[in-house]
Amino acid sequence: MAFSSAVSGQSHIMGDLKFTWGTYNASGVTGGNIDTGLTTVVAMQLTGSGSSVVADAPTINETLPIAGSAITIVVTSGTTGYWVAWGY
After folding, report:
1. Domain boundaries in the chain?
2. Across the chain, what does the average pLDDT equal?
3. pLDDT for res 12
């Protein structure tokens, strides 16, 4: 049982500003780190997914903006979802 995440894509918005997106899976744990691939994350959005209603909204456990690519999130154990991050 572990937390996993993957980057599915990356694009430039304007200038040096980029956004990356991907998925997360909290199999048997209540959170973990998402490696966004960005140097600095200025904003992030989490969306739970699955065939049933997500009991608790996924939460970012950081103060943004933050230097570094690893963003800690807190989720209900056993949930999966999607993420989008904006930054440099």
Report:
1. 2-87
2. 91
3. 84
Instruction: For residue 64, give the nearest of 77, 75, 73 by alpha carbon.
Output: 73
What are the two backbone dihedrals, phi and then psi, of residue 82, each rounded to the nearest 5 degrees?
Answer: -120, 150
- Nearest-angstrom CA–CA distance, 24 and 37: 14
pTM: 0.88
Give the pLDDT confidence of 33-44 residue by residue, as tens digits.
999 999 999 999
Sheet of strand 80-87, all strands in order from the earlier edge strand to the far edge: 2-14, 17-27, 80-87, 40-49, 66-67
Q: Are 19 and 80 in contact (CB under 8 A)?
A: no
The CATH number assigned to the domain with range 2-87 reads: 2.60.40.3940
Rg over CA atoms, the chain: 13
